C-alpha cells in the first residue's frame, strides 16, 4: 500500500497566520503539523508516500522532509494548483499510485490513542474502501455517516444542514486501486470540488464500503480553526509532559517500525540535541 498526504489549500480560515506559510507547516506544540499525519501513515507500515501541496510551499516541504530516505521511506511530491477537493488527490497521484492500494490522509488531521497502530495495519489490504466514524458534537462541519439499526452504514452526506447522526468521517481513508477510476468519474459538487464523500458513496453503492466506529480510546483532532489549532497543541503538550512520550515523532516511528537502525537514529538525533527533541530520540536507544 502507498500513502498520500494532502497538504494543499490556502488555509484562508487561519489567515493571517497562513498567508505566508502553509498550515501544514505550522507548529503543533513541538513539531510541524505534517509530522502527525506522516507518522500515522508510517504507523500503518506505509513507506512510499506522496505529499501534495501548493507550488509556493513545495520547496519548504522538501527542505523539511527531504526524500524520506533518512527515515527509511521514499517521499514523492506533487502540486495541487487550486483546492479542487480531496478526491483530486487520486487524480494528481494516479501515476504514483499505479496499480497499488492507497491510503489518503489530510495534512491537518491528528490521530492518537490505544490500539491505533493495530487498527491501521489491519486496514492495509482493503477490498473496496475503509473509512471511520467518529462521534462529534458538531457534525455539520463534516461528512456524516448514517447507520441502520444493525450498525451498517446506509448513507453519507457532506456537511449536512440536518445531520442524521453525530458520526463524522475523519480525514483518513483506505482504498483498493479502483479509487483511481472512481475519482476520475465523479463530478464537481456545488462547491466546485471533487468531494471525497462522493468517492465513499460510490463504494457504498457497490456494497464495498466498510465503516468502523472509532472508540473512545482514540482521539481525532483537526486543526482548521484558531481554537482547534490551539487545542491540538495543548493536547499534545499535556500528553507528552504527562507521559514523557512523544506524539507524531516520525523518527521514533521509523525506528520502532524497523525502517531505520540505531546508527541512523543517532544521526537524526545529533543536530536536534539542543532542543531536547534529539535527547528524546537518543533515550529510545
From TrEMBL:
Gene3D superfamilies linked to this entry: Spore Coat Polysaccharide Biosynthesis Protein SpsA, Chain A
Presence of the UniProt keyword Magnesium in the record: yes
Pfam families recorded: NTP_transferase
Every Nucleotidyl transferase domain range: 2-236
Cofactor or coenzyme needed: Mg(2+)
Catalytic reaction annotation: dTTP + alpha-D-glucose 1-phosphate + H(+) = dTDP-alpha-D-glucose + diphosphate
CDD domains xref list: G1P_TT_short
InterPro entries in UniProt: G1P_thy_trans_s, NTP_transferase_dom, Nucleotide-diphossugar_trans
Highest taxon listed in the record's lineage: Bacteria
One function term, GO molecular function aspect: glucose-1-phosphate thymidylyltransferase activity
The keyword Transferase is assigned to this record: yes
EC numbers, comma separated: 2.7.7.24
This protein's UniProt keywords: Magnesium, Metal-binding, Nucleotidyltransferase, Transferase
Family recorded in the similarity comment: Belongs to the glucose-1-phosphate thymidylyltransferase family.
Protein function: Catalyzes the formation of dTDP-glucose, from dTTP and glucose 1-phosphate, as well as its pyrophosphorolysis.
Protein name per its UniProtKB record: Glucose-1-phosphate thymidylyltransferase
Organism expressing this protein natively: Maribacter hydrothermalis
